[in-house]
Amino acid sequence: MTQNLDVCLTPALIPLYNVEDYIVVVIDIFRATSSICYGIENGAEAIIPVSEVEACAAYREKGFDHLLAAERNGEVVAGFDFGNSPFSYTKEKVSGKTVVLTTTNGTHALHLSRKAKKIVIGSFLNLTSLCNWLKTQNDSVLLVCAGWKNNFNLEDTLFAGAVVEQLKESGYTLDDPAMAANDLFQIGKNDISQYLSKTSHGERLKKLGIEKDIAFCLQVDITTAIPILDGEKLVKLV
Amino acid sequence: MTQNLDVCLTPALIPLYNVEDYIVVVIDIFRATSSICYGIENGAEAIIPVSEVEACAAYREKGFDHLLAAERNGEVVAGFDFGNSPFSYTKEKVSGKTVVLTTTNGTHALHLSRKAKKIVIGSFLNLTSLCNWLKTQNDSVLLVCAGWKNNFNLEDTLFAGAVVEQLKESGYTLDDPAMAANDLFQIGKNDISQYLSKTSHGERLKKLGIEKDIAFCLQVDITTAIPILDGEKLVKLV
């Protein structure tokens, strides 16, 4: 077996990988990929990730009956239905709907990974379901951390380490970032919330008054749906 | 005090920092910055880092009486005096001489950091001396890991974590990569050699038959000289 399990610590490093050789898992724990997992679990027909607020707004102008979610720097952009708080992705709000989503970091990572064999979405919410599915694939896996403004962040890396933890006994070859991510997970796993409270991004999100969102995004295995990119849309893997 | 202690995990991420706000420490543990520290300690008048083998060769054509050190992918380039094994930087070989050095990763990081307030060279060899000097400076510090082919590697990050360990009680604000590097150092510090033996680069270097070099580069505090960039040359900080 010569499958690799690699971790790309920031979107800026994606060009260093031949993404076409991998199944890519995009990770943006606070909060885009957590909300996407929750929304798809709750019956959203599709979630369309876009890079720019303007591209999101364009869906309204085109007359589509989509929910429009736009966030920049952790806040909902004025005039949009909502941002990427997971509490906006409940069954009541998204079931049967298509959501157009733009976020600071997550969408960026998704777009840079376009050439991958498959692109799926990971978060603590669907951790074990995701890992079990990855184990059934005969492909190398690249865990892409969305990070913060193209740089490393602890929460996405810690989650990558949690995935490595579940896959590492399955014969993959790990690269250095995968080893490091898994070591960080060993340090943080007993109290992830406490571990992450020291991070810059945690501080930033606290200032935005979204501690509830943070706690929500750190819940492990409360969903099983795996969002997968199909053309331009994220849909439920079946 | 508002000094930052930040870690740039790979040269690819240097553009994310305003390097002109920092004292930059360039780190390429296996083996460039270890050898530079050892060479400057042993009385080399200067070490001139260059990016390209051709630029290194040009010094011979210009008629300079310099030692020429050229390495690519861990091996000495044919026709050059030596590469970057620390054992080539003994007192007998380099005392009073100028060495022109090109390496795979270290020089790359140095050149990308040019605009920094000061650029100094770090390795386990001069760890405490370097940290003690940094503490006397009223400046933010950016630890730049040379990495491997623009990506993250464990040995450079672990060393960055060792520097963080000595500075973190001095009031700096740490970024996420600095926290992660320090956590990794906590895991590896009791047996750095054992910890690093699992890494991809360690494997690569073992194949090149340079285990002796690796062991040498992991010696802590056997030198006190701090190489600093002065124009185009690395010289001893006085």
Quick description:
The structure is a homodimer of 238-residue chains. The first copy, chain A, has a single domain, classed as ComB-like (putative 2-phosphosulfolactate phosphatase, Alpha-Beta Complex), CATH 3.90.1560.
Could you describe the 3D structure shown?
- The structure is a homodimer of 238-residue chains.
- Chain A is an alpha/beta fold and 238 residues long.
- Chain A has helices spanning 32-41, 53-61, 91-94, 106-112, 127-136, 154-167, 176-188, 192-196, 200-207, 211-217, and strands at 4-8, 22-27, 46-49, 67-72, 75-76, 98-102, 118-122, 140-145, 173-174, 227-230, 233-236.
- In chain A, the strands form 3 sheets. A 5-stranded parallel beta sheet of chain A has the order 7-2-8-1-9, with helices on both faces. A 4-stranded mixed beta sheet of chain A has the order 3-6-4-5, sandwiched between helices.
- In chain A, a hairpin with a 2-residue loop joins strand 4 (67-72) and strand 5 (75-76).
- Chain A binds chain B through residues 9-10, 12-13, 16, 148-154, 157, 175-177, 179-180, 183-184, 186-187, 198-201, and chain B through 9-10, 12-13, 16, 148-154, 157, 175-177, 179-180, 183-184, 186-187, 198-201.
